[in-house]
Amino acid sequence: MSKNVAVVGVTGVVGQEMLNCLEKRNFPVGDLKVLASARSAGKTVTFKGRTVMIEEATTKSFDGVDIALMAVEADQSKEFSPAAVKAGAVVVDNSSAYRMDPECPLVVPEINPEAAKNRPKGIIANPNCSTIIMNVPVWPLHQVNPVKRIIVSTYQAASGAGRPAMEELEANARAWAKGEEFTPTVFPYQLFMNAFSHNSSLGEKGYNTEELKMTNETRKIFGVPDMPVAVTCVRIPVLRAHCESITVEFTNPMTPEEARAILEKAPGVTVLDDRSKNRSPQPFDATGQDDVFVGRIREDLSLPGRGLMLWVAGDQILKGAALNAVQIAELL
Hints:
Blueprint: E1 3-8, H1 13-24, E2 29-36, E3 44-47, E4 50-56, E5 67-70, H2 74-86, E6 90-93, E7 123-125, H3 129-144, E8 147-156, H4 163-178, E9 196-197, H5 209-222, E10 229-235, E11 242-250, H6 256-265, E12 269-271, H7 283-286, E13 292-299, E14 307-314, H8 318-331
Parallel strand pairs: 1-2, 1-5, 2-4, 5-6, 6-7, 8-10, 12-13
Antiparallel strand pairs: 3-4, 8-11, 9-10, 11-14, 13-14
Helix pairs in contact: 1-8, 3-5, 3-8
């Protein structure tokens, strides 16, 4: 049965990728609305070979819409999502607006698809990109051997801050190649040839917002409210695809070989781990790919028998955002 779909924020990198995923996965789209800001209204996008005109997103844009995919900032989602629900749509929201709302399920289809059924507000939240990329490979291990603690450090691409950040990184690289000075305007510091703490705000305990998102969202998705999760989030000069170094402490012993066997069968995971060639996931491997790539599966020598370390890479725009949202829509 076809569904009438609206993509809100279609001119952004995530909105455009949502449209690509709907087409690539042959989602049963009936009528399609593509919505963006007033300055983009009247422009067009292509979907399945036909031209679709962009309309200005307003609270009155959702008549006849069955599923609304939100690829906008949290304040805009808080304006448009309730209006879409009131008009009869189910909302899949990519922003942070509703992730920790107890009446809005936070869903990764490989982990908790059944949660999408219980949505009293009519809104399903899409988790943070780094949370998804970590949880997809950790969850199948947790199912076999309950996780006691996670320690993760992220290496996050410019794409997590949207198209302007990607364009700034490219412009910075061109300026450097020409020997020209460059002043960043999107990021607080130069990202090219550099790395810095994630550019979200710091709280009083010294953790930035991104780190707290990963902690709290993982607890909600796993259904373990007190799970110890320690996070450090960093921006690196990569255009697209986040990497993460993950250390997991288990309840019971687990060997790297056992973990590898589990991960090789896990949905949404590709194992890339060739020790003889020192070959493990890179951003180039994950870019444009649906799966999260996992490698460097090894024992945590500080916790023999019950600790493992992983290195993962995942496309932040795809599985970290647009693809996960479309997979949620498929559950509907």
